[in-house]
Write a structure and sequence with these properties.
Elements: H1 9-20, H2 25-31, H3 34-38, E1 46-58, E2 66-74, E3 80-84, E4 99-104, E5 120-125, E6 128-129, H4 130-134, E7 150-152, E8 161-168, E9 172-179, E10 184-188, H5 193-203, E11 206-211, H6 217-220, H7 223-234, E12 240-242, E13 253-254, E14 260-263, E15 266-272, E16 281-285, E17 288-292, E18 295-296, E19 299-300, H8 308-318, E20 327-330, H9 335-345, H10 350-364, E21 372-373, H11 374-380, H12 389-394, H13 401-413
Parallel strand pairs: 3-5, 10-11, 11-12, 12-13, 17-20
Antiparallel strand pairs: 1-2, 1-4, 2-3, 4-5, 5-6, 7-8, 8-9, 9-10, 14-15, 15-16, 16-17, 18-19, 20-21
Helix pairs in contact: 5-7, 8-13, 9-10
Protein name: Metallo-beta-lactamase domain-containing protein
Pfam families: HAGH_C, Lactamase_B, Ribosom_S12_S23
Catalytic activity: an S-(2-hydroxyacyl)glutathione + H2O = a 2-hydroxy carboxylate + glutathione + H(+)
Length: 419
């Protein structure tokens, strides 16, 4: 296209420049959203994050130093970045789980100096300037008491998460899964609606949904009452989430394997695990797994609607594949009796013996034994140890894990404490 001349050429030149300026790299970069998307801070100059771990980054040659840094997960978008901690000794003021404020440094967001690939630095720790801490003008605030909440670390998917355990009936557990950033919560298996609602009020969180693991009354029986309570006192409706088939009381939303439920800034992943019931699901959020009656501490649920192959899949191909630090929040306090059976199956398992003594003491004191972890279950739960020699010996030398599952479950169904 040649440049226009003559009448109205100025207007034509303006139009030409306007249509062609996107071909200029500098204009394209400054006006498109590509640069903002590539920037973990999303175009902001600063962002808050949670310290996951302290790390050392080897400086570029010819320097041979290790630059003290930390790995941070941003609260706004859950992206993980490396952030430099400036000044000697400042890393002593940064601990895992601290909330930090980071900012970019270096020309146009590039790495600076001899630190390869690091584009950000820590400027505040727990709301206090890192420079003020370094000069000893201020002290780092102490961590606050969270009122019995279990704060979950390591993985922060855009928010800090907490789990509140709510005992009910004779041995049931309901839970409040809380997004501490937005102060909303999901009630997990709230069979005693009034108790769960009261606890949410005490914690000053708003229940925004019900997550039900399965349709049995002692897990789903309080759903409708809780929905009515929230509508009566707060004039709002909440969804009731459950597994396939709409068998759950007051269910409004069905989920199945691989689905993700949004709770505030949290993402809750669903695993479909039919066996105890056909609609049973697990809810996994960060490092918390709500297992209902599929997995108990040192045990598993009865196969009311399934078979050994399905339970084997749920425990050993789903749960066992999760990170070992994943916390197990089950539906009942059956730990001591389950561990007695585990000790019967593997009498030489010292880990089982120690945990059995611990669980008996906890039960005597009226304390919950929840949560466990995937790592603990792999060491103590006979239903997750089907390939171990001691469990196979108990199963008359059977090697097939599915057959071992069936034999061990049948033995548990007929097990009498003290036998």
């Amino acid at each position: 296209m040649h440049k226009p001349s003559g009448i109205r050429c100025a207007r034509k030149l303006r139009v030409h420049r306007r249509t062609q300026r996107w071909a200029q790299k500098s204009y394209n970069k400054s006006h498109s959203v590509t640069a903002m998307k590539a920037n973990p801070l999303g175009g902001s100059s600063m962002a808050k994050g949670i310290v996951l771990e302290k790390i050392g980054i080897e400086a570029k040659q010819p320097n041979s130093a290790i630059r003290k840094s930390c790995r941070v997960q941003l609260i706004k978008n859950s992206k993980k970045i490396a952030a430099f901690v400036p000044r000697d000794g400042c890393l002593n003021y940064v601990d895992e789980n601290d909330e930090v404020l980071i900012s970019g440094f270096g020309r146009r967001g590039h790495a600076v100096g001899d630190i390869p690939g690091v584009r950000f630095k820590v400027v505040k720790v727990s709301g206090v300037s890192l420079l003020a801490l370094y000069k000893e003008k201020k002290e780092k605030p102490r961590s606050t008491d969270h009122g019995g909440l279990v704060l979950l670390r390591d993985v922060f998917a855009a928010a800090i998460m907490a789990v509140e355990l709510v005992p009910m009936l004779s041995d049931n557990y309901a839970y409040l899964l809380i997004d501490s950033t937005t102060r909303v919560a999901a009630a997990v298996d709230p069979v005693d609606a009034a108790k769960v609602y009261s606890r949410a009020k005490e914690l000053q969180v708003a229940i925004s949904m019900i997550l039900t693991t399965h349709s049995h009354w002692d897990h789903a029986g309080g759903n409708r009452e809780l929905v009515d309570l929230i509508y009566k006192h707060e004039n709002r409706q909440i969804p009731v989430v459950g597994g396939p088939g709409h068998a759950v009381e007051a269910q409004t939303q069905s989920v199945t394997d691989g689905d993700v439920v949004k709770l505030g800034d949290l993402n809750v992943k669903v695993y479909y695990t039919p066996c105890h019931t056909r609609d049973h699901v697990l809810y996994h959020c960060q490092d918390a797994l709500f297992t209902g009656d599929t997995l108990f501490i040192a045990g598993c649920g009865r196969f009311f609607s399934g078979n050994p192959a399905e339970m084997h899949h749920a425990l050993n191909e789903v749960v066992a594949k999760l990170p070992e630090e994943t916390k197990i929040y089950c539906g009942h306090e059956y730990t001591a009796s389950n561990l007695r059976f585990a000790a019967h199956v593997e009498p030489d398992n010292e880990v089982v013996q120690k945990k059995l003594a611990w669980s008996i003491e906890k039960t005597k004191n009226g304390d919950p034994t929840v949560p466990s972890t995937v790592k603990e279950e792999l060491a103590t739960n006979p239903f997750m140890r089907l390939t171990e020699g001691g469990v196979q010996k108990f199963a008359n030398g059977e090697k097939d894990p599915i057959k071992v599952m069936g034999i061990v479950r049948a033995a548990k169904d007929n097990f009498v404490i003290g036998k």
